[in-house]
Design brief:
Membrane-bound Lytic Murein Transglycosylase D, Chain A, Muramoyl-pentapeptide Carboxypeptidase, domain 1, 21% strand, 6 helices
Length: 229
Amino acid sequence: MAIQHEVQPGECISSIAYEYGFFWETIWNHPNNAQLKKTRKDPNILAPGDLVFIPDKRLKDERRPTEQMHRFRVKSVPAKLRLQLFEGEVPRSNQTYELWINEKKVTGKTNANGVLTASIPPNATEGDLIIGPHREHYTLLFGYLNPVSDLSGVQARLNNIGYNCGEADGQMNEDTENALKAFQARFGLTETGVVDGPTRDKLDYLHDHDNLFPNEQSSSGPAKRNVRH
C-alpha cells in the first residue's frame, strides 16, 4: 500500500528508497514527489519532517520450468560518496585513506584535488575516515545535512568548509555571525554577518562542487566541499 514517509534525521532519498526496496530514481522522480523535488532540488538533502511518497510495488512475473533450480539476482545500487579534503586551503592530494562503514573497510587514495570517491551502502548514516601519513581520524555523518534554506544547513556548510559556527543548531549566535563575516570577506561578498541571498547561493555552490580555493585577490571563484551523499 502506498504511504507518505516522514523524513527523520539522517535520511535521504537513497536511504529511504533502500528501506522500501526501490531504486532512488523511482522515488525521486515519482509524480507525487514533484513538489518535494522542486523544493529540495537535491535528493541527498532533505529536512526532517519532509514527506516522501512511497508507491506500491509492482509485481513482475518470471516464467521458468518446474522441478529445476533457478537463480535470480536482486539489483542493488550503492550510493556514491564524494568528499574533498583540505589542510587549510591546500588540498590533501594523493593521500591514502581507510574508510570504515558497518565494520567494512574501503581503502584508496585521494586524487590531485584532494577528492575521495567511494561506494557506500545507501542506508549508511556514519563512517570513520583515517587518512594521510599521520593517520588522522574523522567521523563522517551521512544524510544529516539540512537544506541551505535553513540556518542549521548554513551553519553545517560553513563548518564543513572551515568557518566554525559551533553546533549547527539553527540558532543565530556570535560564532555564526563571525563565521558568516569571514566567509563573506573571503569570497568577495558584502560583509554583513547576515544570511542574505548572495551569501546563501555562494555557500551552496561552493559546498557542493569539487573545486580548489581561489587566490585571495580574486576570491569570487569556488572553494571546497566536505560532505556527501
